[in-house]
């Protein structure tokens, strides 16, 4: 909770300088660390969790990189104090 609060406070403190502060909150990432091992041991259950998601796939490193690129670009100069949740289109719990 503290990192989320930190982003929101910094956004308010730096907004007058036209500095944006946001965060990316990624979910499980395909090909990252222990996820491959978890998928291998869970088999059908892991595949079902992918098919239950609206996008029917796991998030990739490219998905996270694309989100970071958006937040670093001029396209988001009006977005600040936000938390970009990357969850394959699934609703936040």
Describe this structure in words.
The protein has helices spanning 2-14, 34-42, 44-52, 61-72, and strands at residues 23-26, 83-86. The chain is mainly alpha-helical. A two-stranded parallel ribbon has the order 1-2. Helix 2 (34-42) crosses helix 3 (44-52). The radius of gyration is 16 Å and the shape is elongated.
Measured by DSSP, the beta-strand proportion falls in 5-15%
Query: Cα-atom Rg, whole angstroms?
Result: 16 Å
Helix content: 40-55%
List the helices and strands in order: HEHHHE
Spatially, the strands of the biggest sheet line up as 1-2
- Low-confidence parts, pLDDT < 50 over ≥5 residues? none
Mean pLDDT: 79
Largest sheet entry: 2 strands, parallel
Structural class: mainly alpha
Q: What is the overall silhouette? A: elongated
Descriptive terms for the model:
93 residues; mainly alpha; two-stranded parallel sheet; 4 helices; 2 strands
Kindly summarize this structure in a few lines.
By secondary structure, the chain is mainly alpha-helical.
Please give the structural blueprint:
Blueprint: H1 2-14, E1 23-26, H2 34-42, H3 44-52, H4 61-72, E2 83-86
Parallel strand pairs: 1-2
Helix pairs in contact: 2-3
């Amino acid at each position: 909770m503290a990192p989320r609060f930190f982003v929101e406070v910094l956004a308010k403190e730096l907004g007058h300088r036209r500095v944006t502060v946001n965060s990316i909150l990624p979910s499980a990432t395909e090909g990252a660390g222990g996820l491959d091992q978890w998928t291998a041991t869970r088999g059908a259950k892991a595949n079902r969790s992918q098919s239950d998601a609206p996008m029917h796939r796991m998030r990739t490193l490219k998905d996270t990189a694309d989100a970071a690129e958006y937040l670093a670009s001029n396209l988001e100069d009006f977005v600040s104090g936000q938390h970009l949740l990357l969850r394959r289109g699934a609703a936040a719990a």
